[in-house]
Amino acid sequence: MRQVMTGNYASAYGAKLARAEVIAAYPITPQTSIVEKLADFVATGELKAQFIPVESEHSAMAACIAAETAGARTYTATSSHGLTLMHEVLMWASGARLPIVMTNVSRAMAPPWSVWVDHMDSIAQRDTGWLQFYCQSNQEALDTIIMAYKVCESSAVMLPAMVVMDAFILSHTSEPVDLPSQELVDSFLPPYSPDLKIEVGKPMGFGSLVKPDQYMEFRYKAMLGMKASRDRLLRVEQEFKSIFGREHGGLLERYMCDDADVVLVAAGSVAATAKDVVDSMRTKGHRVGLARIRSFRPFPHDEIRALAAKVEGIAVLDRSYTFGSAGAMYTETKASAYSINKRPIMKNYIAGLGGRDITPRVLEKIFEDIQVVSKRGAEDEVEWVDVAGLPRRWR
Amino acid sequence: MGKPTIPEEEFTYPGSTGCPGCGANLVMRYLLKGLGDRTILSIPACCWAVMPGYWPSNCLKVPLLYTAFEATGAAISGLRAALDVKGVKDVTIVGFAGDGGTVDIGLQAMSGAAERRTDAIYVMYDNEAYMNTGIQRSGSTPWGAWTTTTPVGSTHGFKHEAKKDIMAIMQAHRIPYAATVSVAHPEDFVKKVAKAKEVKGFRFIHALSPCPPGWRMNPMHVVEVARLAVDTHAFPLYEIENGRVRITRKGKGLPVSEYLRFQGRFSHLTDAEIAAIQKTINENWEMLQTKETSGT
């Protein structure tokens, strides 16, 4: 059934269709209407779940951790300061090997205060052991929640996943979304049934103290789980496609990349704009393409390597900045491409922080710049785009 | 031998890594005697996060979820929600935290759990400082005490702030049951826990937990000191049932110096300072009796 809805409502429907059993959440702009909708679903009995109106995001995640340990499928949603407040317990969730699924409506960090999109919040969580999926559309937000449970609940994976959706551009913008039937989703996603859960009659400690001669083995196994999530995601998406008739591009969605001279690597909703720019530039004879990082964790190393071996230039657009280095998508893309023999020229573009619009014109200029740079090299490896006071004009 | 006055069955195995004479070992022991094995514990960072032993050993006969320092209130809410959604009944959910994890870093999550009327028992074992990290002051450290972050030195820098009244804080949450318990009074302890078990909603147990290394005292005096805390009214035993205060042990009303003299953490105090503590204790005891008489 197709309905016009916001990304937030699409996410709430995703959690409902996945039959989340415990939802613990705390309000924060612009995530709020996700949990409002879920509270409605629970209040009307449409969703048989326990809704815990916690007093902070830290508690939201801690409650999900406890409920998930007791065998319940859990969901929460947050944004920005809420996500960064969770940082400690995000690590707890992955260390405890709990397949919690959470939506993060990505929003800039203060100060200065901003409620608008950038990816600093989720990028800052990249080392927490969570899978991270960046969505381009409301449909993808819904579908990815359902897929994420199936990927993460695999006994080979058993790690949590963050479904990232751009503030306002997706969260509050309505698009047609296909709502799959509950029967179809049930046929795809079985109930959560972990090998181990906390229960009376089985005394054991979950999260006990370990010695230095034991700790690394736990981390090693979590690493194997993350490694396994890569193939698991690809398989789950194929199964999803066979049932629901759509897919979203695996770990790295490639658009017009096969014969491209230069490509733009980006994540999130800007990819949709970039596809239009690719189309229009191609009509003028420019061989450009777009590679969308859909899964930042696990990172699409193999896909990036294969892509980098074929192109002359790669522009990486980061909607965040790692101070003292560069954008995280850039450093990781560059690291992946390093091991190939003939490396393309690469350049990082920092753009769209705090909700600044990344217009088609800006993207076109990035493509034009990487076309030039790929021939003669970059003067500055990292360029801040569309910032007042800098010499280059972007608009 | 006389008939045992508390349940004989033990729910802890030998092997706790607690210090010799640890009061918190007794708190856990009496708590589980009162609750039985259909209990799930959640424990944050505190001495008892270490005391069950290194993985894969565990000295408790009930399942245990470790949680982050400030997260006990949220963890017990999550456990209860999961059991509710799964239709699992007759299980007591217990948050078991130290004083720092309760009155300081964990206060917010506990307050949230209490306000949400989470069906769980929250036990604070109160050794009156951050003992697991090596005796740093907490909001529950009493006035006058030495700790490593309130060193006495030449400036007389002992703790100059009063202990937080956590029972009053919990009473203000209008919870159905709250009680203080002591390891020197196991019958009273187990009785209150068993009573709490039968109550629905958020319940709070405040257990004084003497700590030989932290209180600078001989481990052989732990129970004696716990008893003196009650007898000097430094730690009165009472319960608050649906808002009504009831003192469960009157105590002997001994001078507080009797309680303090066993503890090196108070050894620097002058007679005038001890008199100041006595004055506060007298006022608190009178206030408690007034509360009992007036019913609130």
CATH architecture group name of chain B: 3-Layer(aba) Sandwich
Separation, N- and C-terminal Cα atoms of chain A: 40 Å
The pair of chains with the biggest contact is: A-B, 44 and 45 residues
- By DSSP, the count of extended strands of chain B is 8
Largest sheet of chain A: 7 strands, mixed
Distance between the first and last residues' Cα of chain B: 41 Å
Major beta sheet summary of chain B? 8 strands, mixed
Structural commentary:
The complex is a heterodimer of chains A (395) and B (296). Chain A is α/β, with parallel strands linked by helices and 395 residues long. Helices cover 40% and strands 18% of the residues of chain A. The longest helix of chain A has 33 residues, at 212-244. The model of chain A has no long low-confidence stretch (mean pLDDT 97). By secondary structure, chain B is α/β, with parallel strands linked by helices. Chain B has a single domain (23-294), classed as Thiamin diphosphate (ThDP)-binding fold, Pyr/PP domains (Rossmann fold). In chain B, strand 5 (177-182), helix 6 (186-198) and strand 6 form a beta-alpha-beta unit. The radius of gyration of chain B is 18 Å and the shape is globular. The model of chain B has no long low-confidence stretch (mean pLDDT 97). At the A-B interface, helix 3, helix 5 and strand 9 of A face strand 1, strand 2, helix 2 and helix 4 of B.
